[in-house]
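Bug #77: duplicate submission created two jobs. Keeping one. Sequence:
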Amino acid sequence: MLLGLVGKPSCGKSTFFKSATLSDVLIASYPFATIEPNHGIGYVRVDALCKELNVKCNPRTGFCTGETRFVPVELMDVAGLVEGASEGKGLGNKFLDTLRQADMFIQIVDISGTTDIEGKEGAGDPVADVRMLENELNKWYRAIFEKVWDKLSRTIQSTKQNFAKAVSQQFSGLRVTEGDVKSVLIKLKLNPDVPASWSEKDLSNFTETLRHLTKPMLIAANKIDKPSAQDNLERLKSAFPNIQIIPCSSDSELSLRQAAKAEMIEYIQGEASFKINEDKVNEKQKAALELIQKNVLDKFGSTGVQNVLDKAIFELLDYIAVFPAGSKLADSKGNILPDCFLLKNGSTALDFAYSLHTDIGDKFVKAIDVRTKQAVGKDHALNHRDGIEIMTS
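Kept job's structure:
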C-alpha cells in the first residue's frame, strides 16, 4: 500500500517524510523545494508475536525490538499543492495525477500558522489550509470523472450495464471498487439506472463522497511545539470534527532519529523518552535533546509521527497484521517469524493464502492457528496478530 503526503508548500511534508523514512531528501524553507515525488519506507508498530510465543524473531523486512515489530509501509511525498492546483497552478496537474497511486492521504498542516496559504512566511490559518486542500482534491477527483462522464453515463443507461461494475472498471486506476460505488449510491440514494439524468449536484456529491471513501485522509498537525499551535489545533478540531487530527513535531522526530543513528541516544520511534549516551554528546547537543524531551515528549507523549502512520494503517485503512508461521515458526533457512503481512480487516484464511502466493491459494486445504493449534477453514476470518500456518495439497 502507499500513503501519500499532501499539503501546501512549506508545511513540513519533506521533514515528516524524512523523519519517518530517514530518506535523503531536500528540506528547505521555500515553496516547491520538492519537485519530483519522493518514495521511501516507513514502519507501523505491531505488538511482537515472538515475545508471546517465547522465541526471538528474525524479520526479513522491518525489525523487531522484542516488544514491538516494525512492519514496512511505503510513503510518497509530493510537491506542495496551492489553490488552483486542480486547474494546473503551481505544479498541480503533475502531482495530483501522481496521487492516483495513493491508498490514502496524510495531510501535513502547519498548525503553528506561521506560513500563508502559498507556503510563504507570514500569518497563516490552518483551517483555511485544510479547506483549500479538500476543495482542490475534490475538484481534481471530479475532473477525472467529467472527462468521460457524458459518454459513460449514456452508455451505461442505454445498454443497462451494471453501474457499479462499469464505474469501477473505468476508474480502477483510482483504486475504485464495485463495493465502493455501491456504498456511495446507497448513502446518497442515487438511481444507478439513469446516471445520464443526474444533476450537476448529484455528480458532485457522488465524486466527493467516493473520493473520501477511496482516498481517506487524516491530518498531521505539524509543528505542535510552536507558539499558537495549541489554540490552532482546537480550532481545527472544531472545524473538522469528522477528520482524525494528530498533533506531531516532525522536526523533533527527525532530530531524535538522526541522533539515534549517530549513537548519541538510544531511541525507538514512537516512544515517550530516550536515553542520552553521555560520552557521545557535547553540552550544546545535550541541552537541545533535553528541550525536545521537555517541550515535545513530556507534553504530548511522543513526537506524533509514528502515531500518524499507525493510525493511518490500522484505523483509517482498517488493516490487520498476520504472521505466516509453520509448526516450527521458521522458514526453510531457520529464520523465526521472518514475515508479517498487512491485510484488510475481514480477510479470511484463503485471502491470506493468496497473499502469500497464487499457488498456495489454489492448493489451500486448511490453516492452523499457531496459538491454539486448531485447524480453521478457508472462510475463517483472521484477527490482528494471528499466526497462521497454511496447509496445501
